[in-house]
Specification:
Number of domains: 2
Structural class: alpha+beta
CATH superfamily of the largest domain: Jelly Rolls
CATH topology of the largest domain: Jelly Rolls
Strand content: 15-25%
Shape: globular
Distance between the termini: 40 Å
CATH architecture of the largest domain: Sandwich
Oligomer: single chain
Radius of gyration: 19 Å
CATH class of the largest domain: Mainly Beta
Length: about 230
């Protein structure tokens, strides 16, 4: 973890236009600027762990963070990913409960750490911000409900196809058509909820049938409609 000594202004932050902070007044942004700490975190860094008492929340300025829970056998279950413009840790701050997830950097990121008092003041005094935060909470709850349904009703093959589509929609592709998120086979298995060996076998099958192209951890989707058909979307 390295604290940045440059001035990352909330006013000029490119992520502000598509985050909940777009509703803040100049004075509220200034208050965040005075109190936040901006840090760079390398791949593999843990931002916070399950059971941690949160003193504030974080806004992702750049990079990608995976958010997961650990089972009794030590296996990770990836819940979602945080990308630029997203906030993490806010639920535990508002509920005054220990963190129920662990957050780990999978692509070097810059985070703005914002004290809990700032979040409470914004919720109390800015109705638009509070409404956006409520919408965000409902969105994440809806995604969790969908995931539970998929686990119960879809096959591993269907879930993997759906995850690949979701990653493409969420992170898009680079100039060569490769997904802008690089995951290990184990991480993919921790999203889908199955053994790593099953993911390796299914990725090989998708490749042989022309749905995707593989180069190590890099994945290029060649037939999105075909994957949607497999996923029953």
């Amino acid at each position: 973890m390295q604290e940045n000594f440059f001035d990352l202004s909330c006013d000029s932050c490119t992520n502000r236009t598509h985050s909940i902070f777009r509703h803040l007044a100049e004075g509220e942004l200034h208050e965040i600027m005075l109190n936040k700490i901006t840090e760079t975190h390398k791949r593999g860094s843990i931002i916070y762990r399950e059971g941690t008492r949160m003193k504030g929340f974080c806004c992702v300025q750049s990079g990608i963070i995976k958010i997961y829970q650990t089972g009794f056998d030590g296996k990770e279950q990836i819940i979602r990913f945080a990308k630029p413009g997203d906030i993490i840790g806010y639920r535990s701050v508002i509920s005054n409960e220990p963190a129920c997830t662990t957050t780990e950097v999978i692509k070097e990121c810059v985070l703005c750490h914002i004290p809990a008092k700032i979040l409470f003041n914004l919720v109390k005094n800015n109705g638009d911000f509070a409404l956006e935060l409520m919408k965000l909470t409902c969105k994440e709850l809806g995604e969790a409900n969908s995931y539970i349904t998929d686990i119960a009703q879809k096959t591993v093959k269907e879930r993997l196809a759906e995850i690949l589509i979701h990653l493409d929609d969420e992170f898009s592709e680079d100039s060569q058509g490769i997904l802008n998120i690089s995951l290990t086979r184990e991480e993919l298995s921790n999203i889908v909820g199955t053994a790593t060996e099953s993911i390796i076998r299914l990725l090989s099958e998708f490749k042989s049938r022309g749905y995707i192209e593989l180069n190590g951890r890099k994945i290029k989707i060649l037939d999105k409609p075909g994957l949607k058909h497999i996923a029953n979307i």
